[in-house]
Amino acid sequence: MADNNNKWGIIYCPKHGIRTSKRWERVEKALKAKRIDYDFVQSENPNSVNRLVKLFINNGYRTIIIMGGDSALNDAINCLMQEESSVRDRINLGIIPNGMMNDFAHFWGFREGDVEQTVNWLAQQRVRRIDVGRINYTNKKHEACHRYFVNCVNVGLIAALMNLRRQTRHILMSRTLSFLTTFILMIFQRLDYKMHIKINNDQIKRKVMTVCVGNATGYGQTPNGVPYNGLLDVSVVYHPEMMQLFEGWYLLLKGKFLNHRSVHPYRTNEVRFEETSRAMVSVDGRLMNTPVGPFTIKVEQEVINFLIPA
């Protein structure tokens, strides 16, 4: 195995699969200014991050940096979680936000426009052990499967809207236009689903618009969630009237989502969905194949070394 203990392995995940040289040049300049020794690879597509993380692990890299968004970070987390804890404990994972959605990076204070500050923080190698969530489900082949996440799992309307937003932003190439288009298309979406959910000692059997299970802030839906307390924050949103729905969007944008009368918050270490009426499910902002039958979401405490601001 190569001796790459002090060298960073950087995986660059371009937005929309298109490399923006100016963006990378800023990162490269910041790395050179800090005299950081690194190797750089670019992901060819969303499915290649797992393979590239594995490549760095097998070649002895102790610091792996994802230059991408929530989905790319999710792929890296899932690759690391396939390793034995003895291997995983030797690796520090970091993020340079560069995706369509960078919610987990924003939680820690990393910002897309401040590349130099981000590299400076990462160079100080301040490590925090973080929790990850895990969704256990059965796929269409009736096989037992699981997927890890660092930010959140959405079930219902928000999962559908996030999928729409990803698609419209890919086409329109604008965050603002994407948001407005998604907001308009929302009126054509199914607004509630018959669900049966078990949270702590509570059982919810009724029509529900959306559920967010957050290991962190969950794109504003679980604003009190933190990835280091061994617990999941859960927001269950009942179907509001149309004017209340607009109010809910306003409060979400203002960071006061839990103040809405239709939002019911919980804190737990496990959530079980017995029935969801085949509502869409997204994991860290990426739509997944809808699970077949019941599924469970749990938290695994302090299993990843994550680089945070100094």
Q: What is the strand and helix layout of this fold?
A:
Layout: E1 8-12, H1 21-33, E2 38-42, H2 49-58, E3 63-68, H3 70-80, H4 85-88, E4 92-97, H5 103-108, H6 115-123, E5 127-138, E6 144-149, E7 152-156, H7 157-172, H8 175-185, E8 193-199, E9 202-214, E10 232-238, H9 242-253, E11 263-268, E12 270-275, E13 281-283, E14 286-288, E15 295-307
Parallel strand pairs: 1-2, 1-3, 3-4, 4-15
Antiparallel strand pairs: 5-6, 5-15, 7-9, 7-13, 8-9, 8-12, 9-10, 10-11, 12-15, 13-14
Shape: elongated
Count of helical regions = 9
Fraction of residues in H or I helices: 25-40%
Q: Describe the biggest sheet? A: 15 strands, mixed
Q: Give the helix/strand class.
A: alpha+beta
Mean of all residue-level pLDDT scores: 86
SSE pattern: EHEHEHHEHHEEEHHEEEHEEEEE
What's the N-to-C terminus distance? 31 Å
Compute the gyration radius: what is it?
19 Å
State which percent range the strand residues make up: 25-35%
What does this structure look like?
The chain has 310 residues and is α+β, with helices and mostly antiparallel strands. It contains 9 helices and 15 strands. It has helices at residues 21-33, 49-58, 70-80, 85-88, 103-108, 115-123, 157-172, 175-185, 242-253; strands spanning 8-12, 38-42, 63-68, 92-97, 127-138, 144-149, 152-156, 193-199, 202-214, 232-238, 263-268, 270-275, 281-283, 286-288, 295-307. The protein has a 15-stranded mixed sheet that branches.
